[in-house]
Amino acid sequence: MPLPPNVYDAEPIPEAARAEIDRMLQSGDLFRYTAPENAPVTLLERDFAEVMGTRYALAVSSCSAALFLSLKALDLPRDTRVLIPAFTFAAVPSSVVHADCIPVLCEVGNDYRVDLADFEAKLDGVQAVIISHMRGHTSDMDAIMALCEARGIPVIEDAAHSLGTTWNGRRIGTIGRVGCFSFQSYKLVNAGEGGILVTDDADLVARAVIMSGAYEHNWSKHHTDADLDAAFARWQNRLPLYNLRMSNLSAAIIRPQLAEIPRRVTDGRANHDHVAARLDASPWMQVPRPLPPERRAPDSIQFNLVGLSDADSRAFAAAASARGIKVQVFGMSADNARAFWNWRFLPEDPGDLPQTRAMLMRACDVRLPARLTRPELDLIADALIAAAQDVMGQPRAYGT
Is residue 235 part of a domain? Predict the structure, then answer.
């Protein structure tokens, strides 16, 4: 019997990155502001903004740092209420708390997307919104932007899982006021850690650049234009420094991978759709469909268990694990950072959120990196289907 694939290793780092890393190791020049211009981090920002079609990009230490700086760059007063989906990673409410704001959680449906009725009901009490495209599932951005723009509420997109995803042809992360991406090892582009924010707003990015750690006049070593220069002059010495910079080493690892994004998106989508079709044939599993305007870039698959009790769901995860496939049932994994009831650092009780809670108790997550082969994908699908049959029995044919 073939061994299950390793779904945690990423693709090899391109050879071009290795050559640049060796050059930097020889010089010891890892700090983004040592060179007078065109440091590797600055070049990454230029290249990433070009890929995304935005005016500006700022590379930082993590996507969490990008979210935090986005909130601080909006110049929100202390205790501003920020609306976020109740299904996201703990780093998102954490970034809100770090920014001296208060997270407000809205319900999420069985398709892992924002419940628009609850979103609208809570919108009048908040001053900013973070939309997490959790695990790459895009909420209805047309409806969300219309509701927020009518109230003058800025939208930050947490696109950590959505590099390469489009909505009505627009790149996710470029629809809101600012978009934030991750280069953590399990993301489409891997630097171990790292993040980047993109925006067309010169004043916002100038504030973020300074607060990221551009002390004195180091902001001049970023790619600038007249609008940005004026904004830097406005904010010089007027903002605290949080020192969330990216190092040249990380940028050297990331830059050569940007050219790989289209292939990884295509392969990841094909992998996901193949496994989804297999799982949907089981009566015990259901994979939510993409929304019509959405073209996803998945590197994992999420599916809901159908007709299983709590005990059955735990038994399913155990049966899959026995076959070498790790399944995370979000609401049942101990201290899961994606289960909102484990966010005990929240300054306010988020409420019960029964719709999101029920979804999390049956929502499953399995990694599917783009590098997997078709036989490896079939092995994963076979193991999941067999695990469900172990617990629930063979499905009966129609009429029997």
Answer: yes
